[in-house]
Amino acid sequence: MAQALGVFEEGVFRKGDVRLSDRAGNKILPIGNDRFASVAETSVFIDKTMLIADVLDKGPAVTLFCRPRRFGKSLNLSMLQRFFEIPVGADEEKSYAGLFEGLAIWDARDGRYRTHQGTYPVVRFTLNNLKCESYQDFADEMTASVATEFRRHRLLADSDRLGAAERALFCRLESGQPGRGEAAQSLLTLTSLLALHYGKPAIVLIDEYDAPVMAAHANGCYDEVVSFLKRWLTGALKSNDALAFAVMTGVQRISKESIFSDLNNLQVDTPLNVASDERFGFTQAEVEALAEYVGSASSVLQAREWYDGYRFGDVDAYNPWSVLNYFGNGCVPDVYWGNTSSNSALGSLVADADDKMLKRLYALAEPDGTVRAPLDTRVVFSDLETAPQAVWSMLYLAGYLTTDDTALPGDVDRLRPLRIPNREVAKLYASEITGRFAQVAGGRDMLDDLHRALVSGDAAALAEELESVLLNCASFHDLASENSYHMLMMGLLFNVPGYGAPVSNREAGRGRFDVQLTPVDPARDPLITLELKHAAQGTDLELVARQALAQIDERAYDVAAGAAGSIRYGIAFAGKSVAVACETA
What we know:
five-stranded parallel beta sheet, 585 residues, alpha/beta
């Protein structure tokens, strides 16, 4: 049965349970805009307002939402600010209630949540710009950020509900000239002064709280930055009568033992948790409604292949940044998410991987590939040196991996099947692997030459390119075993034009092949199968290569492939020497 079409009425498009607002009616997508008022006034807004109900229903809690970058964290925090805040400064005479009319929160529970709109003092910090190279730079930037937020509440300087000492303290922090210890207490100070002025507790919203911590870890000032943030946050978020509740967002969940050790009211929501699982990322129903509204309903299947695949709690989720870019660029699939910032976590993993780790990375890159690993979302950065498996948790929280097993989120010993979410992220993996092995090959041009020789069935040219690689990759591995050569060859065969990721050790015919490349268009291009052998120095490598080639035929590794022909390679290695035998079928 065909689904009913959505209905657009009074600036809101409704399709089933999904609501999209477009007050301007121009079908402009909010790409790169994380300011709620601007989005709701000028662009399409996919309704995530029930997050407001989630945080209200928690009561006086401190909630940390951990989601990958570009998954709507900043926009959601801006939405919370515009819903709750008593307008201040330039917005003092403005009401934002109209931006919520017709959305889910306005109608929920017979309108009971409406009474909270515009009724709280709000403190809002964004720490994403505090990625500093030294602790002094961080301290200076933090002081400036505090001063900016204090200036936003400039009315406190003249409040008759504050004493002279309190107004003087406010002015020192507003001017960026805090006294000793006052910067570390500035968050507590501002909530206390706001509560005195308004006669009710304040809400604290902190976006990208972990950004300065991750930068500090990379730049050698981790302990100092964590120590400051611990004092700054704990003072305001623990046993503070001036606090109504707090919401923080970030990518990584920094260990409770470092920043949050003294907070007993902290509730952490990661992609493993069911609560609020629909509030970040787009659901299937939301993507279908958006596609219909912008006139691209026929492109949903392609969008799903490229940008779906995440599992948050009990919900399947799309990458919202990529979906908006996809529809905003005429439904042209591309790696949009990978171009938003450096992929340092993934890049470091690939660059530093040994044979064992490379084997797991290659397994992930295969169709339906998985690795089984425990997820401990309580990240301690020193764990990366002492417990290398912690990298899987970091990649998971960063959005490079997902899992369908979200049961028992607190079970840090549970082995979960981790997988690459979608085609977009798979291309990121392939790009990072190709980048590493292009260096091994002597540059991208030489890797391209190797790929051309491979797909053309030119055994002599392939042997020449491989020997060049072996002579230039002394630092790659000791190349003392067949497995080392196997890992090297796998890395060299990513991003071969017209072919998917290389597949290794799969059952086929009457055994298991070493490496196989499947064409994207089987009607046009041949299947490529490689059998690899490692021999002792002084062995007749040409003979060993021919024997490896014969093994492909004898065991029928490529008989049932269904491609437009087949290219078979037998390759023999000994130290820095190589021989290649080839035949086409």
